[in-house]
Amino acid sequence: MLTIRRTTGRAVLALSVALTGLALGTPSHAATPSTFTAGDLVVYRVGSGSSSLTGSATAVYLDEYSPSGTLVESVPMPTAASGSVNPFTDSGTAASDGELTLSPNGQYLAAAAYDAVPGTANISSTNAVTVARVDASADVDTSTVLPSFAAGNNVRSAVTSNGTDFWVAGAASGVAHTTLGASTSTALNTSDTNLRQVSIQGGQLYASSNKNSLTVASVGTGLPTTAGQTVSNLPGNPDSGGDPYSYVLFTLSGGSHPDTLYVADSSAGKVDKYTWSGSKWASAGSAKVSAVTGLTGTLVGGVPTLYATGSGSSGTSGTLSEVVDKAAAGASMSGTVTTLATAGSDEAFRGVAFAPGTAVVTGLGTPPTISSGTANLPGADGNPGNPTAAITVGDTALGASAVTVTATSSNASVVPNSGLAVTGTGAARTLSVTPTGVGYATITLTATATDGTSASTTVDYAASGPVTDPGTVSYYSGAGNGSTIIDVGGGYMLVGDDESNVLRLYQEGVSGPPVKTFDFSSQLPYGSTEIDIEAAARAGNRIYWTGSMSNSSSGNLEPARSTLFATDITGSGASTTLSYVGSYTGLRQALISWDQDNGSGLGANALGFAASAASGVDAHESDAFNVEGLEFAPGSTTTAYLAFRAPLEPTGVRNQALLVPITNIASLVTGGNPGSTTATFGAPIQFNLGGLGYREIRKNADNQYLIIAGSSDETDDFALYSWDGVATDAPVLTHTALPAGGADGSWESIMSVPDPLVSGSPVTVMQDNGDTVWYGDGLTSKTGMVQDFQKDLGESLTYTP
Predict the structure, then answer these.
(1) Contact residues for 459 (Cβ-Cβ < 8 A; gap 6+)
(2) For 119, which DSSP code?
(3) How far apart are CA 625 and CA 613, in angstroms?
(4) Global pTM value
(5) Which tens digit of pLDDT belongs to each residue from 668-688?
(6) Burial class (CB in 10 A: 0-12, 13-18, 19+), 222
(7) Of 25, 194, 442, 491, which one's alpha carbon is 20 to 30 angstroms from that of 44?
(8) Alpha carbon distance 558, 560 (integer Å)
């Protein structure tokens, strides 16, 4: 069954909406898009509109449209390699490329393109192929690269059954099976290897072709993964002599065999209909759609509603159309065609599929549908605020109210069946989980209709152990290395993470995944290379984010970590959006030079910055070079304190924590990307924080500061200090205890300082839990923990001076 990520609020899709002349306009500095909406359409687009389309490698975008043709968002595919991220580009003129599929479980889009950077000439004559997987959160995975699959010819499509197993098709290598993150594949067939759309429908693998008398064909039986498969035309050889691309199968009369087939015939410019006679497929009319290649569809009120894309006669334009066939099963097609959207200048459409989370209905009298808003759900034993999962059910014949949902657990020691509850009525249900142990469990949700038909889906669950800390505990999931927090109002906060460049928006005090994510890797000077975000400060609607400027834990130089960048806020709370401003990469070297030139006034090299930053120095030592705090000086929006975890000063004793004022931070990020303005500094400030360094510094509008002090090395020693902002007044150790939290967690973030800061004020703090083994399996967020299960622990503490 296909799954839905979340309820869309639509009873049916629009049958016919005339909306013409809609062109795409993709912002050149767009942040990571938000979650797809179930029921929407996703169109594979090549070209940004900034230059003419050619046969060279071109940027690819996945454009989300509402069923009425309104552009919702654009998801840019990677154009450069970084770690497990690989380029995903396509030819600007190859109309046969870029077919798009939705997995049978409704959770993932899949497509195949080329492992090459934009501008690579004659890209469809190269060899290396990138397979992309995109989930409901618009998270793109391009870790799968097949170096020789294309064999000097077009790669055209991919499909996944479950997000792990993939089938890829092209013009030279037939169909091959591979897995997520792999670099090799298994060729399923050695003849009839010029194929187009590969798809899974009704548990069977299919492919289309216009070569060697092939049209729409089955590939082996079921979902084969081994060599030696036969590619066999469907009985009756539908679209014989035509130019078939995408296709959709429906069961309109009940039963177990599809009885209606729609095929996109590009050269003829039409969507052909075929009906099943009991032994073969027979032609049953058509509807005109110019240069059609992409096709998908669902039943709306029992009526086949198709969505088709065309790329124009030269493959360099595009239309998105709705085709509604009101004819019954076995009857000649009676279709109305409505153009919903057109590609902009120097852009082209390729394939189309429903957004992840959509319940695609292809049969009448089918079992109910059920899906979960998340495939992975983390929780904690003893936490009353554990997140829930949104469950969506439906039944095309009986309605959602006729469906009951039950839940069972695969591991009673982690989650007994008694700890599972499904509540709600109609289409929207809620799964609540009360764990009793540590580890993993698979929760099976079964939807049963009143006619006895049923369907099921699963949610993978992970439970951590209880914590005994005082205060209110929340778990912010989807990442596990939170290192700094910025309050954006309305009970929401932005979190920077030191293992990725993604900024995440959470609701403070509410356990669960981020509400939004923002990734400016395409604008940052070092791209997606991790900049080790450790600190941030806000002045008005501008936020400054800085890397640690440290070496790696093994002492290697990491130039990207000397990145300071800024973003501007629009809106607040859940409506917060960010736009990129600019960056500066010279801060580390400027600090070293300033110290060498006696800028501190303490003598040349008095602070020992050059030695601390030298190659071979571990970032987590008292003599290292490592910034973990940033906050503005009292009453200033241009001077900000860099708060050092290390080095401790002076060089001979190592017991004083160091602040260095940047006196021109506002101008550093507005002079380019990166900017060329030289950083200037004020007199350094040194305090004895019990032999600890800075891990966070934050102030309120009345210049009352709170400081999290922590050890320079990896020991778990933390304390909370208050400070009046006066350079000659030492911070005061408070009586507010920072509790243990998660094992091996580091207290590194303060959301905001209450104003006024008085005894009894609530203070929200958060750990970096990158080294925490939450689930008893030895895995941390740095060593292979599933990203959805990664989390940072936050607590609301009561301030005691």
Answers:
(1) 372, 374, 375, 376, 377, 389, 431, 442, 443, 445
(2) T
(3) 5
(4) 0.61
(5) 999 888 989 999 999 999 999
(6) exposed
(7) 194
(8) 6
